[in-house]
Amino acid sequence: MHARKMSARKGVLILLPAIALLLGGCEGTSWVTSNVSPNAAMTRDITVLLTVIAVAVFVVVEALLLYAAFRFSRPRAGEAQQTEGNQRIEIAWTVAPAVVLFILFVVSLQTLMGVSYSPEPARSGEGAFQGNALRVRAIGHQWWWEFDYPDYAFVTANVLHVPIGTVVNVEIESVDVIHSFWVPQLAGKTDAIPGQVNRMWFQANLGGTYLGQCAEFCGAQHADMRIQVIAEPSDAFEAWAKEQQAPVAQMTDAQSKQGEATFMTGACIGCHAINGTNAKGTMGPNLTKFGLRESFAGAILPNTPENVAAWLANPQKVKPANQMPNLGLSQEQIDQLVAYLENLK
Ligand code: CUA
Q: How far is the CA of 233 from the centre of ligand 1 (A)?
């Protein structure tokens, strides 16, 4: 008896922090009970509805069970009234669950249609800007996301800028293994499957930065394959898009020019592209406007000169097993490359 009491207390001690973590741990970051995007709100609403119904059924059934157990377990309680063959009761307990399940079916179907079909679907084959919706291709790589804005003709990586209040139709692809595009506050998960285009949509109705995470195990750095969605007013978005489309500025200072020379003559161009230059690699992220990006390396590092220098010094130390090898750069080369990359604006 004593031992059992102790273990129950231990169980509570372990459970309580776990529950606290579950409820509060994700405060302010990626969490699923959001109504920022209409389809995230639909998902939240059905989650709440299902939980309420499930809890109500649980409480009623358990209450009856406990009542019967205690009421008829007393030594002199006597036998309970027998109801075998009572048609009314049998019809009631057949019809009641059927009605509950039918309601859940209708609500689930409604939600499924709502989150599956974009309110402003992109019409394939037309190429041009689709009505008021923004079209984005999200392409999974081990271990980063490529974001292609086909209607604006530029690509970027890891950070996805979108206008507030605009439907974003995302076409999800992969170049290697199965990944999954998931920004919990904006929408549910959609897998990125090689050789296939999966579609999803979201609409950020509130400005801000939303964090996402690859949600399908895809190798050593799966956990560090993140997404940063920045929702901003449409004029800010258009200004950002214009900057992305503009040609890269000429390097003016000696340090950056040296960095450019190192980049263009070294191994860098084998994997990276910079529009308008000889760098046309496709293995790694296109670095055309790297200096404008908020983060890099699968959105795990803020884009600061210190972080870029640490990355260049040994990418394998920062993100083991990623595709970029340690190039054995000298400190001088690193400083020059950092200057060049940060000036790619
Ligand atoms: Cu990509 Cu997990």
A: 30
